[in-house]
Write a structure and sequence with these properties.
The protein has 92 residues and is an alpha+beta fold. It is 42% helix and 29% strand.
Length: 92
């Protein structure tokens, strides 16, 4: 499901709300999650899951074409762990 599909689904289930307002709400939620992760915070949505940032250390890797050693810089990557309720609903 894309962001626009999510907004359309919310608009269909909430006809009293305007499409532009729903789009603003979805964008605000996603921006707040992004901002919190950017600051190194953890975002937990009960029943859904938790977003966090994991640190990846610098390492030496190999170019698969040439076999040449390549230095990969340290980086931060977003990580999502599904909550218990979400896992149960997906598996049933």
């Amino acid at each position: 499901m894309t962001k626009s599909e999510l907004i359309n689904k919310l608009a269909d289930s909430n006809p009293n709300l305007q499409h532009a307002d729903l789009e603003s709400v979805v964008n605000t939620i996603l921006e707040e999650i992004t901002d919190a992760l950017n600051e190194g915070e953890r975002v937990e949505l009960r029943g859904f899951g938790a977003f966090s940032v994991r640190e990846r250390m610098a390492r030496t890797s190999r170019n698969p074409r040439t076999g040449e050693a390549v230095e990969v810089a340290a980086k931060r990557t977003p990580f999502f762990k599904a909550g218990k309720d979400l896992r149960e609903r997906v598996n049933n």
